[in-house]
Amino acid sequence: MSVELDVFVGNNTIMDEDVYQLWLDGHAVSDAVRLRMESGALRDCVVSVEVVQSDTMDQFRTFQMCEKLLQSPAKLANQLLFQIPPHKQAMMIERYYQFDNAFAREVLGKKLSKGMKKDLDDISSKTGIGIKSCRRQFDNFKRVFKVVEELKGPLVDNVRHHFLLSDSLAKDYAAIVFFANSRFETGKRKLQYLSFQDFAFCAGQLISYWTIGAVGYSVMEDMDVDLEKEFLHNLKDLKVLINDKDMLDQHKSLVCAQLRGKIKVFNEMEANFKNLSRALVNIAAKLTHTKDVRDLFIDLVEKFIEPCRSDRWSVGDLRLFLTHYTSSAHMLETFRFEPIWDRYMGVIKSCILKMYHD
Fold first, then answer.
1. What are the backbone angles phi and psi of residue 222, rounded to the nearest 5°?
2. What is the pLDDT of residue 221?
3. Strand, helix or coil at 304?
């Protein structure tokens, strides 16, 4: 009886980046072989389907054996089983932890627990992302969250250090961890127009300016995962801007003086100034409650962005308004909360401008 046996002996581990991507995308070997043959990448080679299948199976087997190491990236450089050059290791790690923005958008703000795994089939159908790829991405989110949630020090640095990721990918994972920890509402219908990158940008702003780490606390603190409670509590003091009628009128006059002739929606802004100001200040004053923190983005959309959109504000108009709305408060003689105000409005302005699609 004859037996066919494929044997390959070598030193460096052979690795085709296109085949690696097919494995990451969750394709079966047969599908990967077909896609390789159809792609034209092998056009210049006289190669049979059997050889491509054997090569694909061998590489898939190698990737599966490497997967445990990829789940703890620091171990990849120290293992002796696979001779993988450092630049290839970096590529493998980065690609393994890359994710689809459409998938991240579906799970953003949700609890990264085992119970959510039952939803992955639905997410796969909705996004068109293979179920194996969805599972890999979800497991990566959960793994990173579990490792860095309780670590001391800057969140992005912790992600980058423990998982050896690029700066941009580490920032995206920091956003996922931050949203999962605070459970921000992202699934409401009125928020569906916002992309993962819109929310990731806002997460970066919140991490940089509203967390304990933003104000230079000791690195022994759990710095960047939780919003600073004292800051949120102090935001209630901003209500003087809308509760004091004289201050509200003076603030309006100062802003109108700055914007007259500079924005196309001046009349609408002047008519709605008090409502817009009340919306921004009331959102700030409610952030002492966990539920209102979670509803931050839906509140910004419903109470500020939608009224501006209905009056056809441009992004340029909005940027000018928010700039002068913030700076004019400094001219109010009895307003003594400038540091809190600037810290609050700096983030709110950045987030609104990112979320406002005119």
1. -80, 85
2. 52
3. helix
Burial-class residue 163 by CB neighbours within 10 Å (0-12, 13-18, 19+). buried
Mean pLDDT, residues 304-326: 97
Category of 290 on φ-ψ map: left (φ > 0), alpha (ψ -120 to 50) or beta: alpha
Top mean-pLDDT range of 75-84, 108-117, 164-173, 218-227:
164-173
Residue the block writes with tokens 């003091």: 237
> What Å distances lie between residue 145 and 93, 139, 142, 149, 181, CA to CA?
17, 10, 5, 5, 9
- List own/partner pairs for 338-347 with CB under 8 A and 24 or more apart: 340/231, 340/234, 340/235, 340/237, 340/238, 341/238, 343/209, 343/210, 343/231, 344/235, 344/238, 344/284, 345/280, 346/205, 346/209, 347/205, 347/206, 347/209, 347/210
Distance between CA atoms of residues 226 and 155, nearest Å: 10
CA 112 to chain centre: 14
What one-letter code names the amino acid at 128?
G
SS3 331: helix
Map tokens 């003086």 to a residue: 257
CB 237 within 8 A of CB 337: yes
CB-based burial of residue 167 (10 Å sphere; 0-12 exposed, 13-18 middle, 19+ buried)?
exposed
Backbone angles phi, psi at 41, to 5 degrees: -65, -25
Q: Is the dihedral of CA 44, 46, 49, 51 positive or negative?
A: negative
- 3-class DSSP assignment, residue 259: helix
pLDDT tier at 219, thresholds 50, 70, 90: very low
Phi and psi at 83, nearest 5°, equal -90, 90
Q: Are 108 and 179 in contact (CB under 8 A)?
A: yes
Look up residue 248 and give its two tokens: 């509200």
What is the 8-class DSSP label of residue 13? P
